[in-house]
Amino acid sequence: MGQYYKGKYRVRNREKYVGDVDNVVYRSSWERAAIKWLDNNPNVQYFAVEEVVVPYICETDRRVHRYFLDLWFKTTDGKTYIIEIKPKKETVPPKKPKRGSRRRHLSESLTYVKNQSKWKAATEFAKDKGWHFEIWTEDTLKSLGIKILR
User: Fold this and answer.
1) Residue 145, class by beta-carbon neighbours within 10 Å (0-12 exposed, 13-18 middle, 19+ buried)?
2) Active site residues
3) Burial class (CB in 10 A: 0-12, 13-18, 19+), 112
4) Could you read off the pLDDT of 74-124 as tens digits, one per residue?
5) Domain ranges across the chain
6) What's the pTM value of the predicted model, to 2 decimals?
7) pLDDT over 50 at 2, yes or no
8) Which residues of 24-48 are buried (b: 16+ CB within 10 A; e: fewer)?
9) Any idea which architecture 7-143 has in CATH?
């Protein structure tokens, strides 16, 4: 996803952060860019990174797991969002290769099913709280004016 790197983000508007303001970790350049956007956006009243945890049953093993949402934020107009950031290609079923790695296709298929399980649980969780669940891809980031750093 974007560049695969992680690090700690230094929150500028510390009063807006809900959670441990000195331990805000991003896991991709896209997450870092989105966190910076939330931090600097005057329409965002509060935000958090990986603070919302949703239990879900994964369709691959029928066991309960914990899903840490990438972002949580509340806007100044009172709306609350939970966000997952993913490459667009991971939000659609993987295409079966004409030839090549069956193992990779199986892995991508299992990941897709796992993500669908997570997103179904997050959708219900958000609905129960009157929140909004969204999956942000590179297209979403671009449409919001979020600059993706390379």
Assistant:
1) exposed
2) 31, 70, 86
3) middle
4) 999 999 999 999 999 999 999 887 777 788 888 889 999 999 999 999 999
5) 7-143
6) 0.90
7) no
8) bebbbbbbbbbbbbbbebeebbbbb
9) 3-Layer(aba) Sandwich (3.40)
